[in-house]
Every structure is written in structure tokens, then in C-alpha cells.
Amino acid sequence: MAYDVDKAPAEWVMHRSNRREATIWLIGAGFILGSGVMLAFAVGHRLSIAGAAALVALALALRPYADHYADLHVKLLRGAAAERDVGETLNALRPTPGWVVMHDIEQAGEGNIDHLVNGPTGVFLIETKARRYANAQLTKAKRQAAKLHDELGVFVQPVICLHTREGK
């Protein structure tokens, strides 16, 4: 398994977040441009009331999709911050003899592994979550650990790390 040892935590999720942010900016610019064109047509009496109503209806119909897209972006940013903080904490193990800490390991068909720690007490796959996790995410961590076991030939313990706990 080839790996860049200088890879910083959260690079993978930040790359995804940056692409999503660029898309949000493009959609926002398109909305502003479209609004300006609609206003110019309305002022120039080239847009009927029915046409204006259709454009407003289209904007209202697309709003839930835009809200969902923006909410996912906020979750990605929150997740990136959590991964970065947990990764920096784990990096404190690096100077200790016998410990290896790796971040953002791509795994085919799975996305990425947030952190992988190998030390005298075993190999740990650490999946970082900002506030909470769903059972499906625990299942994914177990599946990723099993795949790593098959690749490396050693037991890999899956761990879910909550950056900030939500609820009781």
C-alpha cells in the first residue's frame, strides 16, 4: 500500500467540500444573473405576468434542492474540522517509537479511511464523526476494517471517534 506520510488529516473531505463550494458559487452567480435578466425584461415590458410567475415558481421548486445541497456542504465543513482536529491529536503519537499514524487513505469503493493507527497494541481504523453517527456508518467502518484485514493480513479494529458529542 503506497502512502504519502506527509498527508494532512481531512484533505480528502476538504477537496470534496471545495468542489461543492465552487458549485454553490456558480449557482448563486447564475441566480443573480437570471434575476437581473428577469428584472430587465420586466422593466422593458417584455415579460408577461405569466412568464414572471413561471420563473418564480421554478425558483421555488428548486429551493429545497438548493437547501439540501448547501446543508450537505455545511456538514462536510463540520466533518473536515472534526477530522483535522482528531488527526492532529493522533499525530502526537508519531514521535513515539512503534507508532505509525496515517490520514485520508483512499479505499476503492469506500471513499476514504479517515485515520489508520498502527502501534504495539494493534491496528486501528478510526472513522471521525463531528457530532453523532448512524448505524450504517458503524457498519461501513467494520466493512472497511475487514477489507484492510484482507489486504494487510492483520486484525484491524474499527473505531468511531466523536469530535463533539451531541445529546446526553
Q: Kindly state the mean pLDDT as a whole number?
A: 83
Low-confidence stretches: none
Largest sheet: 4 strands, mixed
Structural class: alpha+beta
- Give the overall silhouette: elongated
Question: What is the straight-line distance between the termini?
Answer: 40 Å
Strand content: 15-25%
Run of helices and strands: HHEEEHE
Number of helices: 3
- Range of helix content: 55-70%
Number of strands: 4
Strand order in space, largest sheet:
1-2-3-4
Radius of gyration: 23 Å
How are the secondary structure elements laid out?
Elements: H1 11-43, H2 49-90, E1 100-107, E2 111-119, E3 122-129, H3 135-152, E4 156-162
Describe this structure in words.
The protein has 168 residues and is α+β, with helices and mostly antiparallel strands. It contains three helices and four strands. It has a four-stranded mixed beta sheet with strand order 1-2-3-4. β2 (111-119) and β3 form a beta hairpin. α1 (11-43) runs antiparallel to α2 (49-90). The two termini are 40 Å apart.
